[in-house]
Amino acid sequence: MGVKDSYPGATKQEDAYRSGFLTLVGRPNAGKSSLINAVFEKKIAITSDTVQTTRCRLRAILSRPGFQLIMVDTPGLHKPQDPLGQRLNETAFAALDGVDVVAFLVDASKPVGTGDKWVASHLAQVKAKKIAVLSKSDLVDEEGIKAQSEALAALGEWEALLSLSSLTGEGVAAFTEHVVSLLPPGPRWFPEDMESDLPLEMTVAEFIREKVLRKFFDEIPHAVGVVTEEMGYDARADRYSIYTNIFVERESQKGMIIGKHGASIKEIGSLARLDLEQLLGCKVFLELRVKVKKNWRRDLNQIQRFGYGEGFDAE
Question: Residue 74 has what pLDDT?
Fold first, then answer.
């Protein structure tokens, strides 16, 4: 499925109605997923300080009177160390094809470096309208913003150069308004009550993986994959029962995630359950199993089974 494939039932609108696709791109931890959550003022995408937090193709759909903006989240572009990393880079680059606007995010608190220049060089070949965005502006003073803006402006030709903070909300509304102004007239691609095209089972798995990422900061996060094996809704009890597998690559990693007397896995489950109950609007029974799948990050079949990096394959 391509970036701009519509959901069944897409409808035409008046010429005054704007709709289109915005791809967010940048280095790891540039703030792409946090910006999506800030625009929606709710949790849509998972976030953490870990590289490869974003692994699944996500289109977040913002429907408002007069426009529909589809925000495409992408993995952070980085030097890949394994087939998973290579797959994620391919996903990010493929998400630039056929979209209306590209937003290049750069962390305002870090100097513009060779990695940012590398991303910008790829964007120079993209036909879409491009804007540059300094994220995390709350971490920098005015002089820092000015210096970073000049460095970012020198990396390419931009329709606009904006700064914002997803944490405080400063500049987020202006960002949304500017992107919408660049969208062409078009149809409503998705139903108005749809906020994400990520399957529910995948969303559940990602919410759980986020909790693992936030608890562990070194090797374990990269080696973790989560699959929702089974989930069902009991209308009488108004409760979802969800069974998931957390995969790691070594027995030692399994032991760390489970923790002494199961303390770590209980904490992960409790935190994930809070998010899932808010997402699903009902009580949740959640069972987490931890399993070892050696070297799964080097197994393309396993990567595909987890659904990581999928969604932008050429047709």
Answer: 78
Find out whether 183 and 69 touch, Cβ atoms under 8 Å.
yes
For residues 229, 234, 239, 241, the Cα torsion angle rounded to the nearest 10 degrees is -20
Instruction: Give Cα separations from 121 to 42, 52, 125, 126, 258 (angstroms).
Output: 33, 22, 7, 10, 44
Query: Distance between CA atoms of 200 and 129, rounded to whole angstroms?
Result: 32
- pTM of structure: 0.76
Sorted by where each starts, the structural domains of the chain and their CATH numbers stand as 18-182 (3.40.50.300), 200-306 (3.30.300.20)
The pLDDT-based confidence of 1 (bands split at 50, 70, 90) is very low
- Note the pLDDT tens digit of each residue in 10-62: 555 555 899 999 999 888 888 888 999 999 998 887 676 665 556 566 789 99
**Three-state SS annotation for the chain:** CCCCCCCCCCECCCCCCEEEEEEEEECCCCCHHHHHHHHHCCCCCCCCCCCCCCCCCEEEEEEECCEEEEEEECCCCCCCCCHHHHHHHHHHHHCCCCCCEEEEEEECCCCCCHHHHHHHHHHCCCCCEEEEEEECHHHCCHHHHHHHHHHHHCCCCCCEEEECCCCCCCCHHHHHHHHHHHCCECCECCCCCCCECCCHHHHHHHHHHHHHHHHCCCCHHHHCEEEEEEEEEECCCCEEEEEEEEEECCHHHHHHHHCHHHHHHHHHHHHHHHHHHHHHCCEEEEEEEEEECCCHHHCHHHHHHHCCCCCCCCC
Q: What is the mean pLDDT of the chain?
A: 85
